[in-house]
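Just scan this pair:

***
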Amino acid sequence: MAILVLGGAGYIGSHTAYELIDNGVDVVIADNLETGHIEAVHPKARFYQGDIRDRAFCDMLFEKEPIEGVIHFAANSLVGESMTKPLKYYDNNLCGTKVLLESMVAHGVDKIVFSSTAATYGEPENIPILETDPTHPTNTYGETKLSMERMFHWVGQAHGLRYVSLRYFNACGAHKSGQIGEAHHPETHLIPLILQVPLGQREQVSIYGDDYDTRDGTCVRDYIHVTDLAQAHILAMEYLQNGGESSIFNLGNGVGFTVKEVIETARKVTGHAIPPRSPPRAATPPSWWQAARRPRPSWAGSPSTTTWRLLSPAPGSGTRATPTATANKRGEKSSMEKIASFTVNHLDLLPGVYVSRKDHVGKEVLTTFDLRMCAPNREPVMNTAELHTIEHLAATYLRNEPDWKEKIIYFGPMGCRTGCYLILAGDYQSQDVVPLVRDTFRFIAEYEGEIPGAAAKDCGNYLDQNLPMARFLAKKYLAEALEHPTEKNLNYPE
């Protein structure tokens, strides 16, 4: 059985996936990559790019993968943005979770660990904050997280869902290997913002308010290492797997640090002055730290010191075209032939290399190949950025391939975004070009550096590029269709 990590390409989600895999757990990751990073996905995890607001995507995950439980990080999380774009947060956080739960109930998945927030408490009545304290969120972000918790409760009452909600503030740190860490765009976390100063990425660090009722006038926060957070989510899932009842827990060290104290520590570690600036202060509580005065749950252990896509019709299949009725300019019906590609059964079409059509130009034969990279209507389509990158890299490689460059007529994406077309001068079959296509996509899968032709003077949409995702998709295509192709990967389905 597998654990599904939603938002597993994000900061805490990626660290949780790493810890799960290190513990020998089978991991499936789903992320829409709005704020996540494909390079943060563990290579041993099965990755699907998609959106939990898409019921078909959720159903596909639970039907395709042996998912036992869900760890849910997939939410928008910027407090300031939530106040200017509240509907975005209700749509993604609340509506997305509603769709997710519908799919979980339909497929009998009854365990979920939720990455919540101490922002559910609002202005704290007690310091440290307890699980029993009132919840009065002061921003849309906190309100949506609290509403998600309530949704888990009522779905549990009706359908037997069991959940653990973990409330915390201020994750920090990185994986011990250094392979993954914090990478937010824009960056909002205090510690990486501070460290950008000695790294030369900013001149000073901003302190939003130095007149709070705290020991040095700056806000107090409870920081918890991202690996500790990751382990807490895993232990919570194990607690549910062992029959534990639904519950809510605070996560924290129980010790608060001021903004100035964090800056001073960074100065000592880096040897840099890290000059501060003081813009108008933010409207946030002066102290936000928490502890669980209730008995620590047995599963918690001791602190250790974190639109759908998995990866469309072809120009032709060699099969007989089918007439279809249409209307001419005068409104009269006439008979038009379907192009051959529209006669292929796309529901049975697998990733592969297919002869789409053969055309005669004078005495020359032009062979069009359908390089189908994902299963149409069953897997997510490719986004334009990574498809654009694949086009740039493949076209560059093919035009420079010594044995084939004189025969290359065209390489480009399909409009349906499930693959690409390759047109060659000559009469060929699928098996003839598999080595060429394989080498092309190996080139893409291993490519590092600047994307050829991806400059403003060279490209009509030069900013729409995504090399990490292009590499991922190339590796997927290699594994599924090119390394060991079968007849089903080389011949259109009947």
The chain has two domains: 2-179+220-256+282-300, 345-489.
